[in-house]
Amino acid sequence: MEKRIAAFDIGDKRIGVAFSDPFNEYAMPGDTYWRTGKFTEDVKAIARIAEERGAGTIVCGLPVNFDGSESVQTEKTRRFIEALRAETRIPVVTEDERFTTMQATQTLIEGGVRRKKRKNSVDSIAAACILDGYLAKRKKEKEKMSLKEESYDYDDENNFVELVDENGESHRYEHVGTIEYRGEWYCFFTNPEEAEEAYEDEEDAGEEIVVFRLVGDEDDESLEMVTDDKLLDEVFAEFCNQYGDSEDADEAAALEPDEE
């Protein structure tokens, strides 16, 4: 299970404390930390609070003006955050805390909490607001990553092309790579259907690869099958050499040049 996330609303007199639930879905306010007036001691105390709760990430609110510009308080908070990063091994990130104190105060007012008692919890509720914002942003980023992965799978399907042979028959091939060799470009394709048939006929059959030379100018390019056995061996060796440097080296090793 992913570790919880700790959040702090850093003020001159108090530091609001909040933690995520065990599943990092929502924020829960904790006990407000009252500063001692000793900078180093306060930094160590905040690091200890996060470490004792087993936090995997620390989120610190960064105060800025309504227009996004920085203020004196921004610099003071940055100084505390940098000291906290030096004090703990837990990653420390920042989150815009504009309007969080206002939101926290409104929450307390709506809850009927009297003015004198608000200062005991307003900072921790503000820290929870900061953490809620961070969790929401992280959720959106995960959704974007998921969409990118789906898009990648779709693009992967676009590697398949229809090639027409000299008899006018169409064959579906998968493009597996293109390299430059001695000033010319060579494209490498496999035929999934033929590979499946070969596997059924012979258990250890390798997947055959067809090599084409890219000929013509940019406006009228075409693929020409490489029939010279010596050139085919040289080009295929160069392909395996370049392909072997990638993470797909095992796939390259399983390919065999079509000698037909």
Shape: rod-shaped
CATH class of the largest domain: Alpha Beta
Q: Enumerate the spans where pLDDT stays under 50 for 5 or more consecutive residues.
A: 101-105, 107-118, 151-156, 246-256
Q: How many runs of DSSP E, i.e. beta strands?
A: 12
Number of helices: 8
Radius of gyration: 31 Å
Task: Enter the CATH topology name of the largest domain.
Answer: Nucleotidyltransferase, domain 5
Quote the average pLDDT.
75
**What is the second-level CATH architecture of the largest domain?**
2-Layer Sandwich
CATH homologous superfamily designation of the largest domain: YqgF/RNase H-like domain
How much of the polypeptide forms β-strand, as a percent range?
Answer: 25-35%
User: What would you call the structural class?
Assistant: alpha+beta
- Tally of structural domains: 2
Query: What letter string, H or E per element, gives the SSE order?
Result: EEEEHEHEHHHEEEHEEHHE
Terminal-residue CA separation: 54 Å
Largest sheet: 6 strands, mixed
Please write out the topology.
Layout: E1 5-10, E2 14-20, E3 27-29, E4 33-34, H1 39-52, E5 57-62, H2 72-87, E6 92-96, H3 100-110, H4 115-118, H5 122-157, E7 160-164, E8 170-181, E9 184-190, H6 192-201, E10 207-215, E11 222-225, H7 229-243, H8 249-253, E12 255-257
Parallel strand pairs: 1-5, 5-6, 10-12
Antiparallel strand pairs: 1-2, 2-3, 2-4, 7-8, 8-9, 9-10, 10-11
Helix pairs in contact: 1-2, 3-5
